[in-house]
Amino acid sequence: MLGANVSLATEADTLRDLRQGDMKKLILHSTPKEKPAVAFVTEDGGTATLADYRGKYVLVNFWATWCAPCRAEMPALDALQGTYGGEDFEVVTIAAGRNPVPAMKKFFADAGVENLPLHRDPKQQLARAMGVIGLPLSVLMDREGREIGRLIGDADWNGADAHVLIEALIGTGG
């Protein structure tokens, strides 16, 4: 498992060498970036922070109901969560901005999403604190809750190229 056995700089270098296809858009940081403890609204109406996911690799995806590239990308994120979601990895989707819950539910239903949460950031406080400048935006976080990379725009997160990266992180081999 890369994350537990080597320094992040070496991990980032290894992942950099593995990027192919859409994953070449994944910008990997040589030094992890601490993330703010800004709360978002969970699917059940409670609150959470990204720190709640420490202990596993997390792919945080910021999206919106009006975002066409988000609609194209969401089924791949859903499939990625279905394949790898568990104690070592999780896809966390957060709708940024004004996204009414009924519209979010319809978006997920239309896209066939079954494995992703309907979290939201209605005032974009977390999105602003994390430097989200466009949608969709995916942030890859390490087990300590630090950002190790980000991908601006949509990507095939369920393709073989993404699987290679996730498997390298969580140590399942590939």
Helix content: 25-40%
The secondary-structure class comes to alpha/beta
Q: Kindly estimate the percentage of residues that lie in beta strands according to DSSP.
A: 15-25%
As laid out across the biggest beta sheet, the strand order is 1-8-7-4-5-6
Write down how many β-strands occur, each being a DSSP E stretch of 2 or more residues: 8
What is the count of helical runs?
6
**Measured on Cα atoms, how large is the radius of gyration?**
15 Å
- Poorly predicted regions: 1-8
Terminal residue distance: 12 Å
Along the chain, the helix and strand elements come as HHEEEEHEHEHEEH
Please, could you describe this protein's structure?
The structure is a single chain. The chain is an alpha/beta fold. It has helices spanning 2-5, 8-18, 68-84, 101-111, 125-129, 160-170; strands at 27-33, 40-41, 47-48, 57-63, 89-96, 119-121, 137-141, 147-152. The strands form 2 sheets. Strands 1-8-7-4-5-6 form a 6-stranded mixed beta sheet. Mean pLDDT is 92; it is low at 1-8.
Characteristic key phrases:
single chain; six-stranded mixed beta sheet; 174 residues; two-stranded antiparallel ribbon; alpha/beta; disordered N terminus
